[in-house]
Design goal:
Helix content is 13%, strand content 43%. The radius of gyration is 24 Å and the shape is elongated. The structure holds 2-acetamido-2-deoxy-beta-D-glucopyranose (3 copies). Belongs to the plant dirigent protein family. One of its GO terms (biological process) is phenylpropanoid biosynthetic process.
Length: 194
């Protein structure tokens, strides 16, 4: 007898405990917050998209797309340029050819954050200007050890068509000019969004 009632008692006790916790937090008035169902926001089905483009980082010449904006006095004696901060507005194109179709820009910062190898902290927004993604953005925050074959960096959010985005980007150097440090990088981006 005791053996069969004990599980029921615990189930009841546990249910009451959960309910009272939920009621306690839900009953506190929150004038700035209401619960919504995804449908009320027009969110239907989560999609997985693969984006593929080439990133053109030009530091040389008269019209660079990335410029040094800050460094420490020790940055230029560091073998990894530790502490150097660059601001970029790098075009993104469909093909490695810089004159191929423009799909967007990578706007943000890369900064040398590693004292042992070149490893950039990347903080940027991919700002798309083409087709249905025109005006939408994806935000990337990650570590980029530029001499690795493939670098993986998280996509931490997005706007427009990419609201609620999360995923990752894989960067692979297509060409790197050792003389002037200009680079063309292939990007494969995988994102969940609605
Ligand atoms: C490093 O940069 C500082 C100023 O930021 C400059 O005074 C110095 O000459 C530079 N050193 C080298 C080796 O370029
Ligand atoms: C891109 O086009 C410009 C002129 O519009 C030309 O000067 C340049 O050489 C072209 N670049 C390539 C890689 O074809
Ligand atoms: C992208 O949107 C802007 C602003 O709405 C518009 O001016 C531009 O023509 C659009 N570009 C494309 C390729 O649709």
């Amino acid at each position: 007898m005791a053996n069969s009632t004990r599980p029921k008692f615990f189930l009841l006790f546990f249910t009451l405990l959960v309910l009272s916790t939920l009621l306690a937090t839900d009953s506190i008035p929150q004038p700035f917050s209401t619960s919504l169902s995804p449908k009320q926001l027009g969110l239907k089905r989560q999609k997985l998209s693969h984006l593929h483009f080439y990133f053109h980082d030009t530091v040389s010449g008269r019209e660079p797309t990335a410029i040094l904006v800050a460094e420490s006095p020790a940055s230029n004696i560091s073998k990894t340029l530790f502490g150097s901060v660059f601001m970029m507005d790098d075009p993104l194109t469909l093909q490695p050819d810089p004159n191929s179709t423009l799909v967007g820009y990578a706007q943000g910062i890369y900064a040398s954050a590693d004292q042992r190898e070149i490893g950039f902290l990347m903080v940027l927004n991919f700002v798309f200007v083409e087709g249905k993604y025109n005006g939408s953005t994806l935000s990337l925050l990650g570590r980029n050890p530029i001499f690795d074959e493939v670098r993986e960096m998280p996509i931490v959010g997005g706007s427009g068509r990419f609201r609620f985005a999360n995923g990752y980007a894989q960067a692979k150097t297509h060409t790197f000019d050792l003389k002037n440090a200009d680079a063309i990088v292939e990007y494969n981006v995988y994102v969940f969004h609605y």
